[in-house]
């Protein structure tokens, strides 16, 4: 009976990793298609006028190109090895935590998948992380276009927002139960 409960718990924790795998595959396949089909620094496709464009750029830094001017060695440590260590810690916490809801487990795995997708680029693509989704931002926050991103980035942001909201909702429910 105890073994059956442990197997069920492990299965519930392992199944969300299918999302991580799906994100990694979707991210790497889309990046490979962009690299193969769209010349560097050009717009390959535009949708809804110029609202959404598929372009081919890369980023040696992290979000918003932060750190792109650092040396290769420093970038390798800061943007590849450190995130790998963080992902390892997140996975360890994930498996030890018995309080995460199913939604929170799926969100964590989406974030892990996105992180691994970008780390693969940082390790195996000399040009850096391939970005290709370019969205018009109509001057909001002083930006005519939002910084270009990819599937991994989008997944990290969406799952991160949902995860944070789920924690706030859980805290609110907990406060009502007290």
What is the mean predicted local confidence, pLDDT? 88
Please state the CA-atom Rg, rounded to the nearest Å. Answer: 19 Å
Number of helical runs?
5
The biggest sheet amounts to:
3 strands, antiparallel
Report low-confidence residues grouped into runs of 5 or more: none
What helical percentage do the residues reach?
A: 55-70%
Q: Main sheet: which strands, in order across? A: 1-2-3
Approximate shape: globular
- Strand/helix succession: HHEEHHEH
Which range does the strand content fall in?
Answer: 5-15%
Care to describe what's here?
Helices cover 61% and strands 11% of the residues. It contains five helices and three strands; from the N terminus they run ααββααβα. It has a three-stranded antiparallel sheet. A hairpin with a 4-residue loop joins strand 1 and strand 2 (52-59). The longest helix is centred in the last third of the chain and has 27 residues, at 151-177. The two termini are 33 Å apart.
Report a brief summary of the structure.
With 178 residues, the chain is mainly alpha-helical. The chain has helices at 2-14, 17-37, 72-96, 102-124, 151-177; strands spanning 43-47, 52-59, 129-135. It is built from five helices and three strands, in the order H-H-E-E-H-H-E-H.
